Input
Amino acid sequence: MSFIHDTLVVFRREMRLSLRNPAWVVIVLVQPVLYLVLFGPLLTKLPAGTLAGSVSPSAPAGAAAAYRFFVPGLLIQLGLFGSMFVGFAIISDWRGGVIERFRVTPVSRLAVMSGRVLRDTLVLVVQAVILVLVGIGFGLRAPVTAVLISLGFIVLVAVGLASVSYATALTVKSEDAFAPMLNSVIVPLVLLSGILLPMTLAPGWLQGVARVSPFRYIIDAMRVAFDDLGVDQPPGLALRCVNRIPHGRGLGSSAAAIVAARGEPGRSRRGKPRSVWELLPQVEPALAEWAAFFAAGAAKRAAAEAGLPRAASPQEADDLLRDAETFLSLAETALGVEVQSPLPLRPAG
Output
């Protein structure tokens, strides 16, 4: 109980010091909103196929899909910056003798750190709630469960990174050394985690490098949770819509026919076989956007063909069928064959 009491004492002290600074209060409230207002609208103009959970490659993403993609990444970005930079404050306290004064008091030394970490976590949770509320005003739609899961991730990130930041700051004891150290870690994490832009826009080698970032998997999980708006659908309906996706199996065959007709490009240096979606943009640049879209959705189509009932929502199944028909028509045109009307689907049931 003494540790908890000491932690709360340090927490109250840190909160009072922060709240007495009006600039700090304004920055805490405005910072997440600025990111959302100034950068979020740019994503609404991206092709929807480049964003997680979007299933139409040519149309603009729209506000709902754009903010379902952007808000989870922005939440983790707030956690990264908000928790990693707290070490500067403890360097100032160490130089001013505050840490030494705490050490001669009966307060637990661990509580000196845990109280600060508790303050930092509360601040980040408040920022996250403000960000989600403002996002709703911009068109964000997400299940309440997804928001709660995201707040849980924010707490974990804040506790872990704030502790590392304090420990590192007390080790180097210099802002001049601490600042470049942080930048050399945070900037690559932000860029490789797909926080601001979808990693589907990156070349293959960069996507491979991005897999080393642990925050990429956290962000992907949060985006899946934000986008999973069809959780409560009847199992029969979900299964029927998934069973309709294999009608797009001719996609790969059509792409392969174009590659064969145009002549396969030179093999890679190591002679490894490449996906038809990698070859298609080289022989038919007009279909490059479609190739990137279908390459990004390969895992979802494979899951659907495997019979997984939660592989796609009814809306995704409808959009994928429509996109597949459009692509097949474009492929027939590129090959110079007569365009045939698609066969009607057999009614489910």
